[in-house]
Specification:
Layout: E1 2-6, H1 11-22, E2 26-31, H2 38-48, E3 53-56, H3 62-70, E4 76-79, H4 86-91, H5 93-113, E5 118-124, H6 147-165, E6 170-176, E7 178-180, H7 199-207, E8 214-217, E9 229-230, E10 232-234, H8 235-245, E11 255-260, E12 266-267, H9 268-279, E13 285-288, E14 297-298, H10 303-308, H11 317-330
Parallel strand pairs: 1-2, 1-4, 2-3, 4-5, 5-6, 6-11, 7-10, 8-13, 9-14
Antiparallel strand pairs: 9-12
Helix pairs in contact: 1-2, 1-8, 3-5, 5-6, 7-11, 9-11
Bound molecules: nicotinamide-adenine-dinucleotide and uridine-5'-diphosphate (UDP).
């Protein structure tokens, strides 16, 4: 089997490459390196002792995509490529719509030309908005509050509309909860540009001395300790979820949607506490006001993926904190940015 991974040099894509290569799947990556480094793929190759075919370029480039499909044998596509920062999406919405929607449309068009009908899409729990109850199942109502989230929901809608007329395709929408942690080797991990928006990369940068103290966004939520609760999933578990989803790329599987989460929520203070204990480090923090757009709690009901994909997250919060710190402490400045 040969798969094309768009955005495969990025955080989740690079971890997924490892799981696929370990299954003897041939991996072709297209990435414009706008938020990643080729070094991630070099390290994936050294971890697995297998080769990846890498094409540097933009998924919206039709001719480039054609040249990839023309070489033949692409059995399916996992579409990770996209811009992903909520705050930035409010500042440059057109770039988010252009990048995140046109990349999917272009891919689908070229896949049709080459009769490649297997597609896995990186969606997000953000499509559930502020859920009325918990845990979240796949049939919950969908709503979004920012351009990034809207691109995820619009992509899902595009795929649902497309499938109505192309029901010989196999399409899987994977709704990720909060991907965190790093490969246990410490060789690949999350390498955000600038000051991290997400909780765990912020904590690891405080721990490594790059940032002064963590700002905890509110301790007055309706949660046991007042801080926000999320479903943190180890990126290796998430990557394995993609390998499991390949089962659905069988003729006649249709369009399937899965939550990829652990089913268990942790608060910001629980994360800080676990990180400190596991790594024997003190994390300075202060409570500040709530961040606009944040919700109190969000966690998955992952039982559909557990049953239908025979997949379950196995790593716990301690593993997550240990592996995130292993990556950050071994790579205080992330990857080198040049190819
Ligand atoms: P990432 O930024 O590390 O990876 C995305 C990759 O896509 C990067 O390597 C980037 O260079 C590339 N890219 C972006 N636009 C491109 C384009 N037009 N052409 C070619 N390459 C392009 O992000 P990630 O955390 O690995 O996320 C992967 C996917 O999962 C994204 O679609 C993201 O929205 C989604 N997702 C991420 C999270 C999360 O918290 N990390 C949560 C839910 C969903
Ligand atoms: N959070 C925080 N300080 C930070 C970053 C995040 O207190 O610097 C909180 C945030 O309010 C939320 C949780 O940590 O309750 C997870 O936030 P993240 O941005 O990682 O994920 P998302 O909000 O997108 O689910």
């Amino acid at each position: 089997m040969k798969l094309l991974l768009t955005g495969g040099a990025g955080y989740i894509g690079s971890h997924t490459c490892i799981e696929l290569l370990n299954l003897d799947i041939d991996v072709v990556v297209i990435d414009n390196l706008s938020n990643s480094s080729y070094h991630s793929l070099e390290r994936v190759q050294s971890i697995t002792d297998k080769n990846i075919t890498f094409i540097e370029g933009d998924v919206r480039d039709k001719e480039l995509l054609r040249s990839i499909f023309r070489q033949g044998d692409i059995d399916g596509v996992i579409h990770f490529a996209g811009l992903k920062a909520v705050g930035e999406s409010n500042e440059i919405p057109l770039q988010y719509y252009d990048n995140n929607l046109n990349s999917t449309i272009t891919l689908l068009q070229i896949m049709e030309e080459y009769d490649c009908r297997n597609f896995i899409f990186s969606s997000s729990a953000t499509v559930y908005g502020n859920p009325e109850k918990l845990p979240i199942t796949e049939d919950f109502p969908l709503s979004v509050t920012n351009p990034y989230g809207r691109t995820k929901l619009m992509n899902e809608d595009i795929l649902r509309d497309f499938y109505k007329v192309k029901n010989n395709w196999n399409i899987v929408l994977l709704r990720y909860f909060n991907p965190v942690g790093a490969h246990p080797s410490g060789l690949i991990g999350e390498d955000p540009n600038g000051i991290p928006n997400n909780l765990l990369p912020y904590i690891t940068q405080v721990a490594v001395g790059k940032l002064g103290k963590l700002n905890i966004f509110g301790d007055d939520y309706d949660t046991p300790d007042g801080t926000g609760i999320r479903d943190y999933i180890h990126v290796v578990d998430l990557a394995k979820g993609h390998a499991a989803a390949l089962q659905k790329l069988k003729i006649g599987s249709g369009l399937n949607i899965f939550n990829l989460g652990t089913g268990r929520g942790y608060s910001v203070l629980e994360m800080v506490d676990t990180f400190s204990k596991v790594n024997n480090l003190k994390i300075d923090y202060q409570i500040v006001s709530r961040r606009e757009g944040d919700i109190a709690s969000c966690y998955a009901d992952p039982s559909k993926a557990n049953k239908e994909l025979n997949w379950k997250a196995i790593y716990g919060l301690e593993d997550i904190c240990r592996d995130a710190w292993n990556w950050q402490s071994n790579n205080p400045n992330g990857y080198k940015k040049t190819r």
